[in-house]
Structure formats: structure tokens, C-alpha cells
Task: structure prediction
Amino acid sequence: SNSGEAARPKVAVVVFLLNGNRVLLGRRRSSVGRNTFALPGGHLEFGESFEECAAREVKEETGLDIHKIEYLTATNNVYSRPDAHVVAILMRAFQAEPHQTPQNLEPEKCEGWDWYDWENLPRPLFGPLETMAQTGFNPFPPAHHH
Ligand code: 8DG
Ligand code: MG
Ligand code: MG
Result:
């Protein structure tokens, strides 16, 4: 939709919201990855930092406030049908207000949010997330020993 110019990749910021050994996932209703379990996140807006985008997307999609937002890694995702190219910035964060519970604030895009054990993830996972899980990626901070 950019009048005659070649398409360019988009940037998305995606959040591993961690709670004990669990992560927040929701089943997608969007055309890309319909019915798969995915993390909260969305597209970087003009002028935003990764941390600002992470906090905004999690708030818009779940109502949760987050803190301790940290960059983890980035992935390059090229899809066909529909054609898309998204560079995903993966962040981790924790709930700033632990008494809050996730709300499904964009029900046209998601079936609802819930916490899932990292060692027992629901399937099917959204493609890019499945790839990360299969390659042994772990979003949790190193356990500290006493
Ligand atoms: P927006 O309009 O709110 O900005 O965007 P959105 O509708 O919330 O975007 P999205 O599809 O939820 O996320 C943007 C892209 O991020 C998505 O098309 C592909 C990429 N992405 C990954 N892994 C994940 C993931 O686990 N969850 C989500 N939501 N997006 C992911 O590469
Ligand atoms: Mg989203
Ligand atoms: Mg969004």
C-alpha cells in the first residue's frame, strides 16, 4: 500500500512476559498465524524505543503494566501468502503490578490470554515462536544461586 514503491520490511516488537516459569500467550485471530499461540506485541511506531513499544503493545492488548523490559534478540521473518517481511525484536519483561490479570482487549485479533509453562507450551505455536522454541531459545534470566 505504498503507491508504486517497492515494499519494505516492517519492524515488530514482541514480548516474553514472564511469571515464574510461565509466559503469556494468546491464540491469534489475525490472518497471519490464525489459531496459533503467540506472544503479545505489534509494530514499532515512528520515534518509539523498543521498550516504549513493548509497554504500549502489552497494555493495548492485555491491559497489563510491565517493567524490567530488556532486549533479548531479533529475528528476520519472511512469509508468503500473505507476503510479509517482519523484523521482530524480542524483549522480556515482568508484571509491574502483580495483582493485575490479563484482559482480552483486542478480541478481533486474539481469542484470549493465559499463562503457559515454558516446559509445556501449547500447540500450534506461531511459526516464528515455534522456531525459537525448537532451537532451544530460553527467555528466562539466568537463575541466581545463593
Ligand atoms: P499493531 O497493529 O498493534 O501494531 O500490530 P499487531 O496486529 O498487534 O501485530 P502482530 O501481528 O501481533 O505482531 C507483529 C508481527 O510480529 C507479526 O506479524 C510477526 C511478528 N512476531 C514474531 N513472533 C511473534 C509472536 O510471538 N507474537 C506476535 N504477536 N508477533 C510476533 O515474529
Ligand atoms: Mg499483536
Ligand atoms: Mg497490537
User: Anything to note?
Assistant: The chain has a mean pLDDT of 95. Residues 50-62 form the longest helix (13 residues).
